[in-house]
Amino acid sequence: MHLFKTSPAPTALAPVLAAADQVILGKGHEIRLAVCCLLAGGHLLIEDLPGVGKTTLARLLARLLGLQFSRIQFTSDMLPADIIGVSIYERSAEAFRFHPGPIFAQVVLADEINRATPKAQSALLEAMEEHQVTVEGVTRPLPSPFFVIATQNPHHQVGTFPLPESQLDRFLMRIRLGYPAAAQEKELLAGEDRRALLEKVVPAVTPQALAALQAEATRVRLSAPIVDYCHAILAFSRGSARFVYGLSPRAGLGLLRAARAWALLAGRDYVLPEDVQAVLPACLPHRLSDSADTATDVHEDMADYILAGVPVP
User: Fold this and answer.
1) pLDDT, tens digit, for every residue of 32-78?
2) Which CATH number is correct for 219-313, 3.40.120.10, 1.10.8.80, 3.40.1380.10, 3.40.190.10?
3) What is the pTM of this model?
4) Which of 85, 164, 203, 299 is the most exposed place for a label (fewest CB within 10 A)?
């Protein structure tokens, strides 16, 4: 249930959204959320069936923003060193030399992240939270900006491992693309191959301009009633018998960061309650567990439950 209206994006980002809409058909809201996540300095989890455009979206954003891209295919036999890198002894130098892994990129696609074991997934924890990795006692910074887009297959599919709560909490947003509408799907089937379209995409924003926009998002104003609204959402989750445990302060900080970025996308320098409501379905449900322990996905229902239960300032 969307309780908001989409407003024009800032001039700098309008070409990004327009170009993305030409490749990923009929998913303007999901694309906007992905760009919002990046503006807020967060990481994105996309959960859906194979073949609906998850990988295409990740590659598309990297190309449109002129960022270095790396793809990691997660498998059950993957080790942390396959992600962060390893030190190899070089006889000529008579010393060990660190060879960086694919995590050292600005946009990292963690493809099918839940096909790897928790041991391999743990290699992302420090990187996603602190934008650095520690190998053999040496801490190495990651590039800036650093944006992880992870894709996840539905839990009922063969060969998947559930993401631990600590890993889920590292993602600012979780979205689904879903099947396209009939008109867009027919256009997709009759049109040019998406991979060929990706090759034609040129950067619409420089990395320097993106960094300036990320800094601008942190300066979007938060009024006291908006902070009170966010705190009321956290308190509601902690007091509700529906949830096994409530939302953490980090969840509240992430919600406000995303709301600021959404307000910037709407061309405003202040946050409205509608901004919080727009990003809440992507920011909060994946951090909560339903006490009913249902087998069906209730993420969207969780968001509606919270929005209905907390008065709007």
Assistant:
1) 999 999 999 999 999 877 777 888 888 899 999 889 999 999 988 88
2) 1.10.8.80
3) 0.87
4) 164
